Amino acid sequence: MGKQLVIGASGFLGSHVTRRLVERGEDVRVLIRRTSSTRGIDGLPVERHYGDIFDGDAVRAAVAGCDVVYYCVVDARAWLRDATPLWRTNVEGLHRVLDVVAGVELQRFVFTSSIATIGIAAHGKATEELPNNWLDRAGEYVRTRVAAENLVLRYHRERGLPAVAMCVSNTYGSGDWLPTPHGGLVAAAVRGKLPFYIDGAQAEVVGVRDAADALILAGERGTPGERYIISERFMTAREIYRTACAAVGVEPPRIGVPIQALAAAAVPSAWLARIRRTDTRLTPLSIRLMHVMSPMNHTKAERELGWRPAPTTEALAEAAEFFVGARRRPAEDRS
């Protein structure tokens, strides 16, 4: 392939896409903000362009001469009381980028979507054929993700953009510097700071390197206009923390709080947050998102892209080792 552009290379998944491309010997360019942390890509031989997704000139300059664009920008703060930042980044900013790339000859535009855009299956596992059918209880974050994916696919239908939508689940692995919301819980568990697990919480999961590989495969052979589920397996919260803690030899959280009890506690938590005009991660919506979705079938990605993910248990072990190591690392090395 020719030159590859990663938009959002400073993020967890974007940094891994960048690194995997470099490891393959590709010619890689990144578009990042000057204020973004670059710990995930420091030392990599990539061409850096600076700007954000609302800067049309910066996007045009970054896209020029590229064959494939990997779009890895997302605001995942599902707990925000005011969803304006979510809509601005996840939909409005994306729209600005699509207006630019729709006028460029590209081989692929690989869009990082979410498994939240997939519907809930009445029976068995959900597939890409099932559109989201639970928006009435999904919250604004999921609404922005569905709107963003629909926008990308509309640009494919109406303007011929060779876009592929990658419906990625919760990613785990090393290099989760921020960390992600789900990674932060693993970090707390392996550091002995998570007093309990939520009994009934469950999620689709995937190793971040495998997710990055799936995006790169889509850049080579993904069918424009198609969605691909990028998830390796379905795990309970207890399984996730037990796997991570075992990898670093610490005791996992032993107390399981029923998800119904936590949902009840979330009601006054959300009420107090509204009164104080602050954000809280403990809301009825955040608890609902921990168990609402169906297990998913990722065989389409295997069949059409040649994707072969490793067991996510391995990625959880890597995440655990990373979080423990990051805690021990001197402060000057983390700056």
UniProtKB/TrEMBL annotation:
GO CC entries: cytoplasm
Pfam families linked: Epimerase (PF01370)
Matches recorded under InterPro entries: Epimerase_deHydtase (IPR001509), NAD(P)-bd_dom_sf (IPR036291), NAD(P)-dependent_oxidoreduct (IPR051783)
Record field: transmembrane: none
GO molecular function, a single term: aldehyde dehydrogenase (NAD+) activity
Domain NAD-dependent epimerase/dehydratase: 5-230
Protein name: Epimerase
Taxonomic lineage: Bacteria, Bacillati, Actinomycetota, Actinomycetes, Mycobacteriales
